[in-house]
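Re-run with default settings, no changes from the original entry. Doing this only to confirm the output is reproducible before filing.
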Amino acid sequence: MNAIRIPLNPVTLAREQTDEGAFWKGLLSEESDMDDDEKKWMINLIKGAGISPMLYKSVYDHMQEVFGKNYNMTGRVISQWMIAAKEENLLVDGWKTKISDFGKAVPKIPRSWVKEIVKLDQTKHFRYMFSGSYMNMKKLKFRRWLPDFIKTNFGPEDYFRATDGGGGYKPIGAFDKTLEGEKGFRPKDACGTCTQYDDTYWAKMAESKFVIAPGGDAPYSFRYYESFLAGAIPIIHDYENDWKERGSTHWVTQIGYKHLMADGKHEFHQSVADLNKKKFLRYQTWTQGDHDPEADKASGFKFDEHVDHHVDQHVDQHVHQHVDQHVA
């Protein structure tokens, strides 16, 4: 298992650069899941959040020291983590001892993003949803089960978009929105440190019951846990291809989210989606503080898991209000 991947060689080289421009240029150069515009967007966010090369290197070195080869955080994820921490004013003197190991290790979504995402309409217009890379299954070796699943299960009430569908692309069904006017999600479409995701990735997840979450060029995906914040339930095919035990999944798995398997029965329960979202807000954002699921278990903390049909309609409003109290 590789050490924290931010990426290794460019960061090592960047750390030796006294020129700030050279550091930022090398920072995300090996992030294969990000195009050049996304890399520029992410670097602008990092710089806009007031994260200097010195601070970035300090965080990187500390993560290496604490987790070594037992963790594997990509440049995209650790950059989001740093932005989230900076928004909370956590990266100040003494941060290395003040933030829990779980808080350091698990991916975090920035407060400014959470505030926008929880405002999205979560009326369920779609059953299954997938938006992402699809065309090169030779490269996306952990995603090769996806075409058959789509062919067998997708219909008019589902949403599909191949974000890498270029010229000459032919839609694969009425559910295929690849060639329609709205764009597939690209972080570069966001504005500054806020999110403007209407009619793209986050909005379509929020409008869907289930998000298909296959691995890609690695045996896991960001959309697995991002779907929880959007109020959807992810579906995976198997753990070996879609959520393999490794540094990048280990800490998220500790949270105890509920997902479904591709070959199982797919019934959407609002109470499950609501509980997943509560867990996400507690453990994968800092809007409610720095919490560790193992520490919570030891202290006897429990989520209110009972949500009957009379309460369902009010739960999402409650989550919005609860988040707004912390996010404002």
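The chain has 16 helices and five strands. Confidence is low (pLDDT under 50) at residues 1-18, 184-199, 306-328.
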